[in-house]
From TrEMBL:
Chief location bin: membrane
Cell location: Cell membrane
Family annotation (Gene3D superfamilies): Immunoglobulins (2.60.40.10)
A Pfam family that the UniProt record links to this protein: C2-set_2
The Ig-like domain, residue ranges: 4-131
Name the record gives this protein: Ig-like domain-containing protein
InterPro entries (UniProt xref): CD80_C2-set, Ig-like_dom, Ig-like_dom_sf, Ig-like_fold, T-cell_Activation_Regulation
Annotated organism of origin: Oncorhynchus kisutch
Membrane-crossing residue ranges in chain numbering: 237-257
PROSITE patterns associated with the record: IG_LIKE (PS50835)
């Protein structure tokens, strides 16, 4: 087995999901796995995965129990990659190294791969609300990682990004989960379209949400906004119903009065 040059990678793992730590020995000939020994270890020299002459994980650290899987059917072609599952915050920025040895004539020892793991959690699409009483808009989201960047854009006569001094933002770290929550607020005026953007620097992705501030927005007594709600003037409807009821009552009353007269003075109705 010829000694390949060591390769260095940087990968991103999503908290709670799996990530691939890739490594290829790039062997020019088929590898006899009965003579192969390789293992992955972290920067604290804890063993993630071990393979020795067909046996797996004899030297695995308990931190990685049931969290790693290799591709045994592809080992003969030089694939030493493993899948690390259930990524946690403790895995962040860890440097993982793979070491391989092929026993036999002139044992070959290799340190073929080095992978740095970045860890992230996606922020959900933020909630954006408008308070018409205080004329401000609030943006919030939670359970993301790492600390994000928050920006606002406003569109009225043009489209512009608000300066930091125009935005009030509070980003907090949950001590138990280690994840971040975001709360941000800006002042607004009517006839504006406001958008809140949350940027994750590790994933290099942005989640956004937009709301429109228009004169038709109605505010309830607590100051919460009910967008698209238009009050209905029910006064004319009530007046119409009352008039109809009065006419019906008059008609019924007139009918019974006429019938009573016929019974009291029947002779007048036959003259």
């Amino acid at each position: 087995m010829s000694a390949p040059a060591a390769s260095e990678n940087e990968v991103t793992g999503i908290i709670g999901e799996s990530v691939l730590l890739s490594c290829d020995l790039k062997s020019s000939t088929a590898i006899d796995t009965a003579r192969l020994r390789f293992h992955w270890q972290d920067e604290s020299e804890r063993v993630l995965y071990s393979f020795e002459k067909g046996e797996e994980n004899q030297h695995q650290d308990s931190l990685y129990t049931n969290r790693t899987k290799a591709f045994r059917s592809e080992m003969s072609s030089g694939n030493m990659s493993i899948k690390l599952s259930q990524v946690t915050l403790e895995d962040k920025e860890n440097v993982y190294r793979a070491f391989a040895t092929l026993f036999g004539e002139n044992d070959k020892h290799n340190h073929p791969c080095r992978t740095t793991l970045l860890v992230a959690a996606r922020f959900p699409t933020p909630s954006v609300t408008v308070n018409k009483t205080n004329m401000n808009s609030t943006c919030s989201t939670q359970r993301g990682y790492p600390q994000p960047m928050v920006t606002w854009t406003i569109q009225d006569r043009g489209n512009r990004t608000l300066d930091p001094w125009e935005v009030q933002t509070n980003i907090t770290l949950d001590s138990e989960s280690g994840l971040y929550s975001v709360w941000s607020q800006v002042n607004i005026t009517e006839n504006q379209t406001v958008t809140c953007h949350i940027f994750n620097p590790v994933l290099r992705e942005t989640v956004s949400n937009t709301t429109i501030v228009s004169p038709s927005i109605n505010t309830d007594p607590a100051g919460d906004v009910q967008e698209g709600f238009t009050p209905i003037n029910i006064t004319p409807i009530i007046i119409t119903i009352v008039i109809i009821l009065v006419l019906i009552l008059f008609s019924i009353g007139g009918y019974f009065v006429d019938k009573k007269r016929k019974l009291q003075f029947p002779m007048f109705y036959f003259l």
